[in-house]
Amino acid sequence: MKKVADILARKNRHLVSVVPNTTVLDALKIMSDHNIGSILVIDADGQYNGILTERDYARKVILKGKSSTDTRVHDIMSTDLPRISPDSTIDECMQLMSANNIRYLPVFNNNYLVGIISVNDVIKAVIANQEETISHLQSYIHS
Q1: What are the φ/ψ torsions at residue 77 (nearest 5 degrees)?
Q2: 96: helix, coil or strand?
Q3: What pTM does this model have?
Q4: Which of 6, 54, 57, 86 is deepest in the core (most CB within 10 A)?
Q5: Per-residue b or e along 18-53, where b marks 16 or more CB atoms closer than 10 Å to that residue's CB
Q6: Of 20-24, 52-56, 80-84, 132-136, where does mean pLDDT reach its minimum?
Q7: Helix axes 119-142, 90-100, angle to 10 degrees
Protein backbone atom coordinates (compact mmCIF):
# COMPACT_ATOMS: atom_id res chain seq x y z
CA MET A 1 0.00 0.00 0.00
CA LYS A 2 1.10 3.51 -0.71
CA LYS A 3 2.41 5.81 1.99
CA VAL A 4 1.79 9.42 2.95
CA ALA A 5 5.17 10.31 1.41
CA ASP A 6 3.73 9.30 -1.99
CA ILE A 7 0.85 11.74 -1.56
CA LEU A 8 3.16 14.55 -0.43
CA ALA A 9 5.44 13.96 -3.42
CA ARG A 10 2.54 14.72 -5.78
CA LYS A 11 1.15 17.70 -3.86
CA ASN A 12 2.20 21.32 -3.88
CA ARG A 13 4.63 21.46 -0.94
CA HIS A 14 3.82 25.10 -0.15
CA LEU A 15 2.09 25.14 3.24
CA VAL A 16 -0.56 27.81 3.64
CA SER A 17 -0.85 29.07 7.19
CA VAL A 18 -2.01 31.85 9.48
CA VAL A 19 -0.97 32.96 12.95
CA PRO A 20 -3.34 32.18 15.84
CA ASN A 21 -4.48 35.79 16.29
CA THR A 22 -5.73 36.08 12.69
CA THR A 23 -9.43 36.85 12.37
CA VAL A 24 -11.55 33.99 11.11
CA LEU A 25 -12.71 36.16 8.20
CA ASP A 26 -9.12 36.79 7.09
CA ALA A 27 -8.32 33.08 7.36
CA LEU A 28 -11.40 32.23 5.28
CA LYS A 29 -10.32 34.72 2.61
CA ILE A 30 -6.91 33.06 2.40
CA MET A 31 -8.53 29.63 2.20
CA SER A 32 -10.79 30.87 -0.60
CA ASP A 33 -7.87 32.43 -2.48
CA HIS A 34 -6.00 29.11 -2.36
CA ASN A 35 -9.12 26.97 -2.95
CA ILE A 36 -8.48 24.92 0.20
CA GLY A 37 -10.80 23.68 2.95
CA SER A 38 -8.39 24.03 5.83
CA ILE A 39 -5.47 26.18 6.87
CA LEU A 40 -2.58 25.47 9.20
CA VAL A 41 -2.22 27.61 12.30
CA ILE A 42 1.44 28.31 13.04
CA ASP A 43 2.66 30.74 15.70
CA ALA A 44 5.28 33.46 15.23
CA ASP A 45 8.00 31.01 16.31
CA GLY A 46 7.04 28.61 13.52
CA GLN A 47 5.40 26.09 15.86
CA TYR A 48 2.32 24.18 14.73
CA ASN A 49 -0.73 25.09 16.85
CA GLY A 50 -3.58 23.45 14.97
CA ILE A 51 -5.75 23.56 11.88
CA LEU A 52 -8.73 25.72 11.03
CA THR A 53 -11.28 23.93 8.85
CA GLU A 54 -14.49 24.92 7.14
CA ARG A 55 -16.22 22.60 9.60
CA ASP A 56 -14.72 24.55 12.53
CA TYR A 57 -16.12 27.73 11.03
CA ALA A 58 -19.58 26.29 10.45
CA ARG A 59 -19.91 24.72 13.89
CA LYS A 60 -18.05 27.17 16.10
CA VAL A 61 -18.88 30.51 14.48
CA ILE A 62 -21.97 30.36 12.29
CA LEU A 63 -24.06 28.00 14.43
CA LYS A 64 -23.10 29.86 17.62
CA GLY A 65 -23.98 33.26 16.21
CA LYS A 66 -20.44 34.59 16.49
CA SER A 67 -18.89 37.13 14.15
CA SER A 68 -16.11 36.01 11.80
CA THR A 69 -14.63 39.51 12.00
CA ASP A 70 -14.40 39.44 15.82
CA THR A 71 -13.49 35.77 16.35
CA ARG A 72 -9.83 34.76 16.23
CA VAL A 73 -8.54 31.57 14.69
CA HIS A 74 -7.09 30.38 18.03
CA ASP A 75 -10.61 30.40 19.51
CA ILE A 76 -12.04 27.86 17.08
CA MET A 77 -9.16 25.90 15.51
CA SER A 78 -8.84 22.13 15.88
CA THR A 79 -5.90 21.24 18.09
CA ASP A 80 -6.45 17.58 18.86
CA LEU A 81 -5.94 16.02 15.42
CA PRO A 82 -3.88 12.84 15.27
CA ARG A 83 -0.43 13.27 13.77
CA ILE A 84 0.92 11.07 11.02
CA SER A 85 4.34 10.70 9.45
CA PRO A 86 5.44 10.35 5.82
CA ASP A 87 5.87 6.63 6.57
CA SER A 88 2.22 6.20 7.60
CA THR A 89 0.20 4.06 5.20
CA ILE A 90 -2.90 5.19 3.39
CA ASP A 91 -4.82 2.50 5.29
CA GLU A 92 -3.72 4.04 8.61
CA CYS A 93 -4.89 7.45 7.41
CA MET A 94 -8.28 6.09 6.38
CA GLN A 95 -8.70 4.43 9.77
CA LEU A 96 -7.72 7.60 11.66
CA MET A 97 -9.99 9.80 9.57
CA SER A 98 -12.92 7.43 9.93
CA ALA A 99 -12.46 6.77 13.66
CA ASN A 100 -12.08 10.49 14.46
CA ASN A 101 -14.60 11.77 11.89
CA ILE A 102 -12.02 14.18 10.44
CA ARG A 103 -11.01 15.25 6.95
CA TYR A 104 -7.46 16.48 7.47
CA LEU A 105 -4.29 15.09 9.03
CA PRO A 106 -1.10 17.04 9.73
CA VAL A 107 2.07 15.25 8.65
CA PHE A 108 5.15 15.42 10.88
CA ASN A 109 8.67 14.17 10.35
CA ASN A 110 10.55 14.16 13.68
CA ASN A 111 8.21 16.78 15.19
CA TYR A 112 8.68 19.03 12.14
CA LEU A 113 5.50 19.84 10.18
CA VAL A 114 6.04 18.75 6.58
CA GLY A 115 2.52 18.83 5.19
CA ILE A 116 -1.15 18.14 5.49
CA ILE A 117 -3.28 15.57 3.72
CA SER A 118 -7.00 15.61 3.14
CA VAL A 119 -9.57 12.89 2.74
CA ASN A 120 -9.56 13.76 -1.00
CA ASP A 121 -5.82 13.06 -1.15
CA VAL A 122 -6.43 9.68 0.47
CA ILE A 123 -9.29 8.83 -1.90
CA LYS A 124 -7.16 9.73 -4.94
CA ALA A 125 -4.33 7.52 -3.63
CA VAL A 126 -6.70 4.58 -3.12
CA ILE A 127 -8.14 4.99 -6.62
CA ALA A 128 -4.65 5.19 -8.15
CA ASN A 129 -3.63 2.06 -6.23
CA GLN A 130 -6.72 0.19 -7.47
CA GLU A 131 -6.10 1.28 -11.05
CA GLU A 132 -2.52 0.03 -10.78
CA THR A 133 -3.71 -3.32 -9.41
CA ILE A 134 -6.26 -3.66 -12.22
CA SER A 135 -3.59 -2.87 -14.80
CA HIS A 136 -1.24 -5.51 -13.35
CA LEU A 137 -4.02 -8.09 -13.31
CA GLN A 138 -4.97 -7.31 -16.91
CA SER A 139 -1.32 -7.66 -17.97
CA TYR A 140 -1.10 -10.96 -16.13
CA ILE A 141 -4.28 -12.29 -17.73
CA HIS A 142 -3.17 -11.29 -21.24
CA SER A 143 0.32 -12.78 -20.93
Answers
A1: -65, 155
A2: helix
A3: 0.86
A4: 57
A5: bebebbbeebbeebeeeebbbbbbbeeeeebbbbbb
A6: 132-136
A7: 140
